[in-house]
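Let's sit down with a protein and look at its sequence and fold side by side. Once you have written the record down, we can walk along the chain together.
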Amino acid sequence: MSKGINPASARRAVARKLAMQALYRWQINAAPWQDVVNEFATDEDMRKADRGYFNQMVTDICTHSEALDGALATWMDRKPAELDPVERAVLWVGAHELRSAPDVPYRVVINEAVGLAKRFGATDSHKFVNAVLDTAARELRPHEH
């Protein structure tokens, strides 16, 4: 048996990337979140994504963004509204998974978020994302530390 990436994990990774992009889009160009979900349904990468995971993540984050921002504010030294939209979207995805996806190990959540920040964020944003989500994981998943 090869040690490749699990196909379900790969589909979730694409769903995370698309969710982060959709959440970025939602912040930059305000629209009902349902429109954003529908817009991304036709994205070229959606065929490689776990569509259900994407839909649930974007729906949950958009409908509970204020609560997520409130939680994020306790784990960092600035207000979520002051963050770069990419960082905020990545942190929303990571914080949401830490809260709502106990089947995903916290190290995977953090690693995926750091990867998104490295790929799409500012030069050192991945360090910030790592620190915030590590703090969040210690609070939300103390049993895994």
Notes: The chain has one domain: 7-140. The mean pLDDT is 93. The chain is about 70% helix and 0% strand. The CA atoms of residues 15 and 52 lie 9 Å apart.
